[in-house]
Design brief:
- By secondary structure, the chain is α/β, with parallel strands linked by helices.
- The chain has a single domain, classed as HUPs (Rossmann fold, 3-Layer(aba) Sandwich).
- 38% of the residues lie in helices and 28% in strands.
- It has three helices and four strands.
- α2 links the parallel β1 and β2.
- 17% of the residues are buried.
Length: 98
């Protein structure tokens, strides 16, 4: 973990703010935790919530962000089917704290 913290610290030394895309998986949660420890400036987590993603992954990302003290912003992605052709139409509804 210390190696990851060191790499993030060096690569993001003059970057502010830093935004971490959190899927809820081990990799992104580990990077978010390391970034939170490594960086002095603001660090934010974002997670896309959609019917295409497993609900437990979104929940895990929210829980990890809260546990490590990371400000987290969910982005809601809404899709729906049309009544006529059955084709999928997609619309992105980006909302904070959804």
């Amino acid at each position: 973990m210390q190696s990851l913290i060191s790499v993030i610290s060096k690569r993001c030394e003059n970057v502010t703010p830093v935004v971490i895309a959190m899927s809820g998986g081990v990799d992104s949660c580990l990077v978010a935790a390391a970034a939170r420890q490594a960086l002095k400036g603001p660090v934010f987590g974002v997670t896309v919530r959609s019917e295409l993603n497993a609900a437990h992954e979104f929940t895990r990302a929210v829980e990890v962000a809260e546990f490590i003290g990371l400000e987290h912003h969910p982005c809601v992605f809404v899709s729906w089917r049309t009544n006529t052709s059955g084709a999928i139409r997609t619309s992105a509804a980006i909302t904070a704290n959804a």
